Structure formats: structure tokens, C-alpha cells
TrEMBL record:
It comes from Litoreibacter halocynthiae. This is Dual specificity protein phosphatase-like protein. CDD domains: DSP (cd14498). InterPro entries: Prot-tyrosine_phosphatase-like (IPR029021). Gene3D superfamilies: Protein tyrosine phosphatase superfamily.
């Protein structure tokens, strides 16, 4: 396999300190998100995958996967969440809303102190899609605008910041993200204003293993 060529970084630091969570927020494409040493170098312990057409297997295995055998399962190398958006039309706007709450929930979630939950620490977070250009850019812009409105008072301000930090060329801004995804984050923003947040974990210690 040849070396991948990038016209942008494998991962990009978008926000050094997301308030009130006190973590750094990154965006990456498939190559950067698959590079565990790179993620660990940047203190990334949470990955949120936006792409329905990209899967990542963080479960350690010594044997190559076979098509006629069960796939590996177990504890991965980090905390991994997946939304599954289409890059363009096809996903309902409610999936972008769900993505926002999954991303926020990943930062406030408190895991039980049990061996079956080995990754209880909350480090930095990376949001990815296949190229780190459209779906992840849209979701991160929504997240920043709703989480840090004093810094990003409008969605346009958040989008401009994310595009710049992701080093997207200005001649591709019209499709990074796709317009249908821009429409989706604006719709999701309106819904978030109505729904609000419930950031109090409701785990009561009585769940099953």
C-alpha cells in the first residue's frame, strides 16, 4: 500500500479548549483517524465517526479477519461512537441533531468503575468522516456554535473557523460542507434551542454487565 497523499493534515486541531468541557477538538479523515499512535500523541481518547460508509475497527487482534469467521469484538483502544451520515442528501436532519447530542454526551458521560468499562478517562476528542471535509465539518460547526456562542455567535462564524482550521481551500468551501448539511445543522440548531440540554448522567449503578 502506497503512502497516502493529503491536501490537508491527517487531523486538524479545530479548538484548543472547548468550554465548558476543557478538551481539545480535532477533525480527521479516514487515514488520520485510523492512525492510533497519532491519536495518542494528541491525547485523543474519544472518536465520533460521522460516516455511514466508513468503519474503523479499534479492537486489538493478532489474527487477520476472515470473511467466513466472526469479526473481532471486545474493548477497543479508545471510546468510539458512530452516527452514520450520508455526505449529501439522504440523511434526515434529525440525524444531525442526534450527532450533536452524541458528541456532547460523549463529553459528559460518566462510565462505571468496572472492568467492562476500561476507558473512563476523558481526553481530547476527534470527529471524523471519510475526508474530514463535509460531514465532520458540519457537525463540529454546529457543536461549536451551540457550545460557545460568545466565541461563535453565528453558524457562519463557526463554519468559517472550522474551514480555516481544517485548511480547506476557499475554492472548495461551497461543498465543505455540502449545502444540504449546512441546512441540516441550521435546522438542528433550531431544535436544540427548543430541546435544551440534560447533562446530568442518569446511570444508577444497577445496569447489567
Amino acid at each position: 500500500m502506497g503512502t497516502a497523499h493529503y491536501d490537508r493534515p491527517a487531523i486538524s486541531l479545530i479548538e484548543e479548549k472547548v468550554t465548558p468541557f476543557d478538551v481539545a477538538l480535532y477533525i480527521g479523515g479516514r487515514e488520520g483517524t485510523a492512525d492510533l499512535p497519532l491519536l495518542k500523541k494528541h491525547g485523543i481518547s474519544i472518536v465520533v465517526n460521522c460516516a455511514v460508509n466508513l468503519d474503523l475497527n479499534y479492537v486489538p487482534t493478532e489474527e487477520p479477519s476472515r470473511i467466513d469467521a466472526p469479526v473481532p469484538y471486545g474493548h477497543g483502544a479508545l471510546r468510539y461512537y458512530k452516527i452514520g451520515l450520508v455526505d449529501g442528501s439522504g440523511s434526515p436532519a434529525s440525524m444531525m441533531l442526534a450527532g450533536y447530542y452524541i458528541l456532547r454526551g460523549a463529553l459528559v458521560q460518566e462510565l462505571p468503575d468496572r472492568p467492562s468499562y476500561p476507558h473512563r478517562e476523558r481526553g481530547n476528542i476527534l470527529v471524523n468522516c471519510r475526508g474530514g471535509r463535509s460531514r465532520s465539518t458540519a457537525l463540529v460547526s454546529l457543536f461549536l456554535q451551540k457550545s460557545m456562542p460568545n466565541t461563535y455567535p453565528t453558524m457562519e462564524a463557526a463554519l468559517a473557523h472550522v474551514r480555516e482550521r481544517r485548511k480547506l481551500r476557499r475554492d472548495e468551501w461551497h461543498e465543505t460542507p455540502k449545502q444540504v448539511l449546512v441546512d441540516a445543522i441550521k435546522q438542528a440548531s433550531d431544535w436544540i434551542d427548543m430541546i435544551g440540554h440534560d447533562d446530568v448522567p442518569r446511570y444508577d449503578g444497577k445496569g447489567t454487565e
